[in-house]
UniProtKB/TrEMBL annotation:
Matching InterPro entries: FAD-dep_OxRdtase, FAD/NAD-bd_sf
Protein name: FAD dependent oxidoreductase
Annotated source species: Saccharopolyspora spinosa
Domain FAD dependent oxidoreductase intervals: 3-96
Length: 98
């Protein structure tokens, strides 16, 4: 979505990157870390009091031990975790930002 159109204080449509225009009386912002940018497109950024910022965390994607089917495990005191990933991988990460 590259634009949000509105009239009379109401959303009327969204415009996609290829120029397609989709009429929409309601637009749900589910853009995760990009949600602030979408609020700006809709012209509601100034009214939105919850801030969003990017945060860098180190995560390694490694091969899981053969046959690994374990749960996600986290040590919140140390701020580390690992969990299985599709394709026999394992995500090993930290929860503290840089
Ligand atoms: C490495 C890693 C591991 C994780 N592991 C776990 C886990 O094990 N368990 C867990 O619960 N959570 C995990 N998370 C967190 C989880 O991924 C997020 O909490 C979740 O994806 C948030 O979902 P969301 O739908 O809010 O946002 P997102 O998944 O970020 O989705 C937002 C979507 O909006 C789209 N978008 C952005 N801007 C636009 C635009 N202008 N127009 C159209 N589309 C747009 C993006 O392309 C994206 O697809 C992990 C995150 C990371 C990075």
């Amino acid at each position: 979505m590259t634009a949000v159109e509105s009239a009379g204080g109401r959303v009327t449509a969204v415009v996609l990157a290829d120029g397609t225009r989709i009429s929409a009386p309601v637009v749900v912002n589910a853009a995760g870390p990009w949600s602030g940018r979408l609020n700006e497109l809709a012209g509601v950024g100034a009214d939105f009091t919850v801030g969003v910022r990017s945060m860098r965390q180190e995560v390694a994607h490694v091969l899981a031990p053969e046959g690994y089917r374990g749960p996600a495990v986290a040590d919140v005191d140390l701020g580390t975790y690992f969990r299985g990933e599709v394709g026999g991988g394992l995500l090993v990460g930290g929860t503290d930002p840089d």
